[in-house]
Write a structure and sequence with these properties.
Largest interface: A-B, 57 and 58 residues
Number of helices of chain B: 14
Strand content of chain A: 15-25%
Number of strands of chain B: 0
Number of helices of chain A: 19
Largest sheet of chain B: none
Helix content of chain A: 25-40%
Radius of gyration of chain B: 24 Å
Shape of chain B: globular
CATH class of the largest domain in chain A: Alpha Beta
Distance between the termini of chain B: 12 Å
Number of strands of chain A: 20
CATH architecture of the largest domain in chain A: Roll
Oligomer: heterodimer
Number of domains of chain A: 2
CATH superfamily of the largest domain in chain A: Dipeptide-binding Protein, Domain 3
Largest sheet of chain A: 12 strands, mixed
C-alpha cells in the first residue's frame, strides 16, 4: 500500500511524458518568409504553403502526392454537356476557424464561395481594390475573361458559368488562388476598416489555425480540432524560416526541424546515407529549358536551331548540374507524367559534324555570336544557371558558334527577355495544375508572344490550333491525342532546347510519418506527424 | 557646448535630405517594378499592370513621387510595404530589436576582447603575444563574413554540437515577442531553459559580426595605448610608485580610450552593414534580411524608409559619440 503514492507519481510522470510526446509540434524548415496570408495576392510556393495549404481549402483538392482531383469543400459537381456550366454542391457543416480575432456565427456556405471569387472578378466588389498589386494568379490564369458569372442557387449550391469551354477548369479550382474565405470575416474587417488584417490575421477552414507570425523567423499554427477531414495528427505546425539550404540541412541534422524543404540535389546522397534522416522524392512537374529566339538573325532558321540541339550534350549537362539520377533529360516541353506526352519525339544523337553542316547550309559564319540571358542565382529548375550556360557555351564553341553569356538579376532578366532582347534565355517553369495546357499556353502560344513570356517568340498556327482545341475538349483521350500532335509540331520546329525535368526532394527525420511529396511543389502537413 | 551641439544638429538636416533623395533615386534606378517582380514569369496583363501602378502611385512623374514621399515623411508617415501592406514602421519595430540585440552582443564581445587584447599587446610590445594579436586581428579584418560564419557553424554547431545552427531560439519554445529582445522575452516567459537557449543562439552570430570591430578595436587600442604609455605623465605616475595596474588602467587606458571611443561609434555602421550577411547566414530575423528581400521585390517604401531609419540611427550614434568626445576632450569643443 505504501508504494501506491510512488506508483501514482510514476504513472503521472509517464502519462505527462506521453502527453508531451503526442503534443510534439512539427517544425518545418522552409526557405523564405511568406509575403502574407491573403494568398490571392501572391504567387510564390512558400506563401501558398503557409496560407493556402495550412489555413484554407478550395472547392476541390489535388489528391495528396498526385495531380488528380478530389472533392474538398464541394462534395460533388456536375458539368453541363457544352462544358460551360459547372454546378458545385457544397459540403455541409464545415467550420471556419475560431480565433481571438474572429468567432464565426455560421458554417461555410455559398456566400463564402461567391465572396472569394467575386472579390477577384467584379471591379465593383468592395474588396476588389483592397490589395496593392491586384490578383496576379487570377489574372495570369485568364480567369477574368474565362468566368462569365458565379451565382448561388441555394446556400449549398454554386454555379460557375464560363465564356468558353475550358478543360483544365476543375484543376484550376484546386489552385491556391481559388481558396475559400469567410465572407462574414470579410464583412467584419470592412466594417472595422481593417482590411489589411485579412493579410495578417487569416481565417480559413483548413487543417491548421493561424497563431502567430514573426517576420523572417517563424509561422506558428495549432491543429484545427474541427477540420472536416479530422484533426491533423500534429498538434502544432511551425514553419522555421532559413533561407540557406545548407543551414536548413544542418538544422535538420540537429533535430531543430523535422522536415527540411528544398534540399540541394548535391546533398541528397549524404542525406540518404544518414540513418537518422530520409528523403522523399518525386518527379516534379517542372522543366528547365533554353528558348531560341525564332525572330532573331540565324535562329529564325530552323536548321540553326536543329544544329544547336544536335550539338548540345544534354546527358552530361543534367548529370553535372543535378547529380546522376536527380533529373530526367527533357525531350518535350513538359514531363512524361502528363497526358499527351509524345514518346515519338527523341533527342537527336550528338553529332558535331552534322551540326556544323547544318550551320553551313544555313549560311551561319564561323564565330557568329548568340547572346544567352541567364539569372544569377539558382532555382529548382536550374540549380546553377552559370555552369549550365558555360556548358552550352563550350558545346556550341565546338561547332563555331560563340555564346555571349549575360548573367543578370532575375527581375531584370525577365523584363528584358519578355521584350525579346535575347537570342537565348535560360528559363524554367513549374506546372501549377497538372495540365499540359499550363505549360504550352503560357510559354509557347501566339498570345504569349504578344505578352512576352514566349521567349522563343515562336508562333506556329498549327500548334496554336491544336492547343486551343485541346483546351476546349473534355474527353481526356481526345485531348491527349491533340497534345501528341502539338508536340510533334514543336519537335519539328525546335523553338527550345528542352533541358531537364528535375526531381524534387524533401528531407526529413526518420521518425516523420504521413508526409506526401507533391508533384506541384506545394507542401501540405495535414497528415504529417513526428512519431 | 550648446553651440557645438547646435552646429552638429544643423549638419544633420542636409544629410537627412541627401539620404532621402539618394535612396529614392537608387531603388528606382534598378530596372523592373514591383508589379513585374510579383508576376515573375507569368503573364502580366497590361491593364492590370496599369491599374496596380496607379493604385501604388507609381504612374506619377518622379519629382511628384518624391514630393509625395517627402511630404508624407514630414508628417511622420513612413508608408506601407507594397508586398505585405503592413506599415513600414511596424515592420521595422518588429525586426529592429533582433538586429540591435545582435549588434549589442557583437559590440560587447568586440569591446571586451578588443580592449583587453589591445592593452596586453601594447604592454608586451614586440612579444609573441603582440605579434599574434596583430596577426589575428589583421586576419579577422580581412575575413569574408560569409565564409567565417559557415566555418564556425561547421565546427561548433555541427561537429561539436555546442551551439545551435541558426535562428534566435529553438522553436519548440513558444516565446511571445513582448520586447523583441529574445534574452529579455525569454526571461519574461515561464519557459524553462529558454533563456539559456537564446543565449546559446546569440554566441556564434555575435562572434561573427563582432570579428571586424574586434580587430579594429584591438589595433586601435594597441596603438593609442603605446602612444599614451610614452607620455610624461605615465612616467611621473610610475615614478610616484603607483601600482602597475593603476598606471595602466587609470592613467593609461582612460586617456587611450578617446580615439577608441570614436572607433566604437564608427563601428556601429559596420555592424549594421555586416548584420545583413550575418543575419542571412544565421537566419537571424533582423532588418538586414528584410532590406535585402525588399530590394529584390522592389518594395520601394520599405527600401527607402528602412535605409533612412538605419542611416538616422548611424547618424544619431555618431552624433552621440561626437558629443561624448567633446565632453571627454574639451579641445574638440572649441574647434571651429
Amino acid at each position: 500500500m505504501k508504494l501506491l503514492p510512488l506508483q501514482a507519481a510514476l504513472a503521472a510522470v509517464l502519462l505527462s511524458t506521453a502527453a508531451g510526446l503526442s503534443a510534439k509540434p512539427l517544425v518545418v524548415c522552409t526557405e523564405a518568409s511568406p509575403e502574407g496570408f491573403d494568398i490571392v495576392q501572391y504567387t510564390t510556393a512558400v506563401t501558398a504553403d503557409a496560407s493556402a495549404e495550412a489555413i484554407f481549402n478550395r472547392l476541390v483538392d489535388f489528391k495528396p502526392g498526385t495531380t488528380d482531383i478530389q472533392p474538398a469543400l464541394a462534395e460533388r459537381w456536375d458539368i453541363s454537356a457544352d462544358g460551360l456550366t459547372y454546378t458545385f454542391h457544397l459540403r455541409e457543416g464545415v467550420k471556419f476557424h475560431t480565433t481571438d480575432y474572429f468567432k464565426p456565427t455560421r458554417d461555410m456556405n455559398a456566400d463564402d464561395v461567391l465572396w472569394s471569387f467575386r472579390r477577384q472578378l467584379d471591379p465593383n466588389h468592395p474588396w476588389h481594390n483592397k490589395t496593392s498589386i491586384g490578383f496576379p494568379y487570377f489574372e495570369s490564369m485568364g480567369f477574368k475573361d474565362l468566368l462569365k458569372s458565379v451565382e448561388k442557387t441555394d446556400d449549398h449550391t454554386v454555379v460557375f458559368t464560363l465564356n468558353r469551354p475550358e478543360a483544365p477548369f476543375l484543376r484550376d479550382l484546386a489552385m491556391a488562388f481559388t481558396s475559400i474565405y469567410s465572407a462574414e470575416y470579410g464583412d467584419q474587417l470592412l466594417k472595422a476598416d481593417k482590411t489589411a488584417e485579412l493579410n495578417s490575421k487569416p481565417i480559413g477552414t483548413g487543417p491548421f489555425i493561424f497563431q502567430r507570425y514573426n517576420k523572417d523567423a517563424q509561422v506558428r499554427y495549432k491543429a484545427n480540432p474541427e477540420y472536416f477531414r479530422g484533426k491533423p495528427p500534429a498538434d502544432a505546425l511551425i514553419f522555421a524560416i532559413a533561407n540557406d539550404n545548407n543551414v536548413r540541412l544542418q538544422k535538420l541534422r540537429a533535430n531543430e526541424c523535422q522536415v527540411a524543404l528544398y534540399p540541394k540535389p548535391d546533398d541528397i546522397p549524404s542525406i540518404k546515407a544518414d540513418p537518422k534522416l530520409k528523403v522523399a522524392e518525386m518527379e516534379a512537374l517542372t522543366t528547365g529549358y533554353i528558348s531560341l529566339n525564332t525572330e532573331h538573325k540565324y535562329l529564325s532558321d530552323v536548321r540553326v536551331r536543329k544544329a544547336i540541339n544536335i550539338a548540345f550534350d544534354r546527358q552530361t549537362h543534367v548529370d553535372q548540374l543535378f547529380g546522376k539520377g536527380n533529373a530526367l533529360v527533357a525531350v518535350n516541353p513538359y514531363p512524361p507524367t502528363l497526358i499527351g506526352y509524345n514518346t515519338d519525339n527523341q533527342n537527336p544523337p550528338r553529332d558535331l559534324d552534322k551540326a556544323r553542316a547544318l550551320l553551313k547550309e544555313a549560311g551561319v559564319p564561323e564565330g557568329a555570336v548568340l547572346t544567352l540571358f541567364t539569372r544569377n542565382g539558382g532555382g529548382p529548375t536550374n540549380p546553377n544557371p552559370r555552369l549550365s550556360a558555360e556548358m552550352l557555351q563550350a558545346d556550341l564553341a565546338k561547332i563555331g558558334l560563340k555564346v555571349d553569356i549575360r548573367v543578370m538579376e532575375w527581375a531584370e532578366m525577365l523584363r528584358r527577355a519578355k521584350k525579346g532582347e535575347a537570342d537565348m534565355v535560360s528559363a524554367g517553369w513549374a506546372g501549377d495544375n497538372g495540365d499540359p495546357d499550363n505549360f504550352l499556353s503560357p510559354l509557347l502560344s501566339c498570345d504569349a508572344v504578344k505578352s512576352g513570356e514566349n521567349y522563343a517568340r515562336w508562333c506556329n498556327q498549327t500548334f496554336q490550333q491544336l492547343i486551343t482545341k485541346a483546351r476546349e475538349v473534355t474527353d481526356t483521350n481526345e485531348r491527349a491525342a491533340l497534345y501528341v500532335k502539338a508536340l510533334a509540331v514543336y519537335d519539328e520546329d525546335q523553338p527550345w532546347i528542352s533541358m531537364a525535368h528535375p526531381k524534387m526532394f524533401t528531407a526529413m527525420r526518420d521518425n516523420v510519418e504521413g508526409y506526401h511529396i507533391n508533384p506541384l511543389t506545394n507542401n501540405n502537413f495535414a497528415t504529417t506527424q513526428v512519431k | 557646448m550648446f553651440s557645438f551641439i547646435a552646429r552638429r544638429l544643423g549638419l544633420l538636416i542636409p544629410t537627412f535630405f541627401g539620404i532621402t533623395l539618394l535612396t529614392f533615386a537608387l531603388i528606382r534606378l534598378i530596372p523592373g517594378d514591383p508589379v513585374e517582380v510579383m508576376m515573375g514569369e507569368r503573364r502580366v496583363d497590361p491593364e492590370m499592370h496599369a491599374q496596380a501602378m496607379e493604385r501604388l502611385g507609381l504612374n506619377k512623374p518622379l519629382p511628384e513621387q518624391y514630393l509625395d514621399y517627402v511630404s508624407k515623411l514630414a508628417q511622420g508617415d513612413l508608408g506601407e510595404s507594397l508586398r505585405t501592406r503592413e506599415s513600414v514602421w511596424t515592420e521595422f519595430l518588429a525586426l529592429f530589436p533582433a538586429t540591435l540585440e545582435l549588434a549589442m552582443a557583437a559590440l560587447f564581445f568586440a569591446g571586451v576582447i578588443g580592449l583587453l587584447a589591445g592593452v596586453i599587446a601594447a604592454l608586451k610590445r614586440g612579444s609573441l603575444f603582440d605579434h599574434g594579436v596583430m596577426g589575428i586581428s589583421l586576419a579577422g579584418y580581412s575575413m569574408p563574413i560569409f565564409w567565417w560564419g559557415l566555418i564556425l557553424i561547421m565546427f561548433f554547431s555541427v561537429s561539436l554540437g555546442w551551439t545551435p545552427v541558426s535562428g534566435r531560439i529553438v522553436l519548440l519554445y513558444d516565446i511571445e515577442p513582448k520586447t523583441g529582445f529574445m534574452l529579455i522575452d525569454t526571461l519574461l516567459s515561464d519557459e524553462e531553459g529558454a533563456f539559456k537557449d537564446a543565449l546559446m543562439h546569440l554566441i556564434l552570430p555575435a562572434i561573427v559580426l563582432g570579428t571586424i570591430p574586434l580587430a579594429v578595436i584591438a589595433r586601435m587600442t594597441r596603438s593609442s595605448m603605446l602612444e599614451v604609455l610614452r607620455e610624461d605623465y605615465i612616467r611621473t605616475a610610475r615614478a610616484k610608485g603607483l601600482s602597475p595596474a593603476r598606471v595602466v588602467f587609470v592613467h593609461g587606458l582612460r586617456n587611450a580610450l578617446i580615439p577608441v571611443l570614436t572607433v566604437f561609434g564608427l563601428q556601429v555602421g559596420t555592424l549594421l552593414a555586416g548584420a545583413v550577411l550575418t543575419e542571412t547566414i544565421f537566419s537571424w530575423p533582423g532588418i538586414g534580411k528584410w532590406l535585402i528581400e525588399a530590394i529584390g521585390a522592389r518594395d520601394y517604401p520599405v527600401v527607402q524608409n528602412g535605409i533612412l531609419l538605419i542611416a538616422c540611427l548611424v547618424i544619431l550614434v555618431n552624433f552621440v559619440v561626437d558629443i561624448l568626445y567633446g565632453l571627454a576632450n574639451p579641445r574638440i569643443r572649441h574647434q571651429r
